[in-house]
Amino acid sequence: MISGCISALxxxxxxxxxxxxxxxxxxxxxxxxxxxxxxxxxxSTGEPALLTEEERREIVTRVLKRVxxxxxxxxxxxxxxxxxxxxxxxxxxxxxxxxCLCVVPYYLKPTQKGIYEHFASLSSEVSCPIxxxxxxxxxxxxxxxxxxxxxSEIPNIVGMKEGTNNVERAIHWMHNFPKNFMxxxxxxxxxxxxxxxxxxxxxxxxxxxxxxLMHDMCxxxxxxxxxxxxxxxxxxxxxxxxxxxxxxxxxxxxxxxxMGLIEPGIRLPLTWLSAEHHDNLRLAMKQAGIKKVCL
Length: 295
Known about the structure:
The chain is α/β, with parallel strands linked by helices. It contains 13 helices and eight strands.
């Protein structure tokens, strides 16, 4: 399994909200040039709930072809329906993705037994690696440590992404996980401390913009270059925070547009970044050394 920063890729769109495949190619090329550790498609940052099945399939197929095995590609395929999730995972497995990231079922608020049975059912139908995505702020229910420990016994459930900034809990969980069950930080603000305490890496929104810096930070943390890792993290600390000044992926798409990588496009009910935040984000970009990109 991958170590380092998996960038949760945006879905580029034109002004009218149509998927922009030319910009998608440009973004993927940027990540390859900057030696990104891996890509996550159809995570929350990719607006999957606002895309059609055909659009999702086209994006995944196109990115896999563009990447051509150079870096791992994860795809978010979970839903609140177990049967629907199985269908989606099977399709992504056939297309050739490396890992399926499956969210804890949202809105329905299942019990811990229901969460366990959901993921156990997914794993029994497919052979590709499954990473559990826990993000209680969005789904409305929080997975428990015991449920994770029970699921970690299933061979193709290989790890979890934790979408909170609770470092104390993350450390407690990692201390109890078996060695082959991998933890990925899902909040950029706690990626470095999580890695220093045992995380395999992070799934990052910031990685869209500065994949090389995120790679270098993770690499330094893994290799014991703690001072350098802290230096990199400090340089992008405020940038991490400002990328959530409005709902993700609104700010990060604005930044990528400022960099010249994508057009200013997003789909309702999401809206383009409010003008009142532009100056703060431009300042955060300047402090992090982020400039326009020419590929």
